[in-house]
Design goal:
By secondary structure, this protein is an alpha+beta fold. It contains eight helices and 16 strands. The chain binds zinc ion.
């Protein structure tokens, strides 16, 4: 097993600090998802295998981190995404343990900032129809809310995710704040539009001069998709829009030196994308 794969499989229940100049940011390990390569239908074997091996992974034994992020401000405790919940234990659903290792309980969370409402991000919000974060408000983009309430727009793949989205929207219905890209949610946290994976997907930019962009599911597998952004993911609702967003994101982070975090970037889920002439790659960031 490669070194990165080992790190991904060991991340459930862990919490790690990511340095920013804004609010305190922590990565929380919900666990990992074993993944068949058929989820990345465009990957060219050979080229892809070499990239994976160079990154400490193996396309024949692929797994994806499932991360959430915690933002602490002086008076709020904000969770970005809530993991996969208890539905696919034992490799997933360790968010509560990760929160505890950061010194918190679910009841301490004041705000839930959702990147989008697929099951691996939203199933952890609800159990048996009830809110798991009893004191929290749910922040979801206006477009994401609209999309999951429009079943005629879902293809067969997105339809598999609708129950998780709708269960979350229902359980928190009196505590939902609809947001728009560009909006500041708390001091030092701004929503950024990243449409494609879902129509209403947003990321969250944390910090000011030394920011981190929590980029949701714009990139699933940095080992492959930084060099080959055209290798899309089967669960992207609109794959050409997702590619456009991924390309724009990569250009933006290279130009601005912003660090990139993500729900599926190998735990602790933050990288720095670097480009030298035509050669693009990334460095794993661990504080
Ligand atoms: Zn995801």
């Amino acid at each position: 097993m490669g070194e990165t794969t080992r790190r991904i499989r060991d991340a459930g229940g862990r919490a790690e600090i990511i340095t920013t100049d804004g609010p305190k940011l922590l990565a929380l390990g919900d666990g990992y998802l074993d993944l068949d390569l058929s989820r990345f239908p465009d990957v060219v074997r050979g080229v892809g295998d070499e990239l994976a091996i160079a990154d400490g992974q193996d396309l024949n034994d692929l797994c994806l981190s499932v991360n959430a992020f915690l933002v602490e401000t002086p008076d709020r405790l904000c969770l970005i995404d809530a993991g996969d919940g208890a539905r696919r234990a034992p490799s997933l659903g360790h968010l509560e343990k990760a929160l505890k290792s950061a010194g918190y309980d679910r009841a301490d969370i004041t705000d839930l900032f959702m990147t989008h409402l697929h099951g691996d991000h939203a199933a952890g919000l609800v159990q048996d129809g009830a809110r798991l974060f009893e004191n929290a408000q749910l922040f979801v983009s206006e477009e994401e809310n609209r999309y999951w309430n429009a079943p005629e727009e879902h293809d067969a793949i997105q339809a598999t995710q609708a129950p998780f989205a709708l269960a979350a929207l229902e359980a928190y219905r009196e505590r939902i704040t609809l947001i728009k890209p560009g909006q500041n949610l708390v001091e030092g946290v701004e929503a950024v539009g990243l449409p494609g994976h879902t129509p209403g997907q947003v990321g969250f930019r944390i910090g000011n001069e030394l920011p981190v962009l929590v980029s949701a599911d714009a990139i699933h597998l940095p080992a492959l998709q930084i060099k080959h952004p055209e290798w899309g993911f089967l669960f992207d609702a609109d794959r050409s829009k997702a590619l456009e967003t991924r390309l724009g994101l990569l250009d933006a982070v290279v130009e601005t030196n912003i660090r990139l975090a993500g729900a599926h970037i190998p735990f602790p889920g933050v990288i720095k994308v670097v480009r030298n002439n035509e050669n693009i790659g990334y460095e794993t960031i661990r504080d």
